[in-house]
Backbone:
């Protein structure tokens, strides 16, 4: 049994993630704040998390580092609107398994996102900017 989560506060982006991931057989729990995600993790750890860097209660690299401090074993794919390869490289250095700029994904990107999730679970970091 695998547990996965999407941390996303924008309804349109959350819907896109849900659609793309369900096409690949992934089922995710949706949370919209870092506090909610950490609380949900307390029940049982997740193996994969799609993490937005801009949440109502956290922003930027601090979102990743705070999440990582609470749950270092989770594979984290950063999913963001920030097109910044330097930030992506820094997050990979800090342990993220991928950095995906949301504008590069559309409703026809399900196969690509599914493959990125599978790579993240196999510990293969990827930057898509």
Residues:
């Amino acid at each position: 049994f695998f547990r996965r989560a999407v941390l996303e506060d924008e309804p349109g982006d959350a819907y896109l993630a849900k659609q793309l991931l369900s096409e690949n057989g992934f089922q995710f729990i949706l949370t919209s704040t870092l506090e909610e995600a950490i609380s949900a993790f307390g029940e049982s750890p997740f193996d994969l998390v799609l993490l937005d860097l801009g949440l109502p209660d956290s922003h930027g690299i601090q979102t990743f580092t705070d999440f990582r401090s609470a749950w270092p074993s989770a594979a984290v794919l950063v999913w963001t609107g920030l097109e910044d390869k330097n930030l992506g490289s820094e997050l990979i250095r800090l342990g993220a398994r991928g950095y995906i700029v949301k504008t590069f994904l559309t409703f026809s990107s399900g196969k690509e996102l599914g493959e990125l999730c599978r790579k993240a679970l196999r510990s293969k970091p990827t930057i898509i900017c």
About this structure: The mean pLDDT is 86. DSSP finds five helices and eight strands in the chain. Strands lie at 4-7, 29-31, 48-51, 54-55, 58-59, 75-80, 98-101, 126-128. The first strand starts at residue 4 and ends at 7.
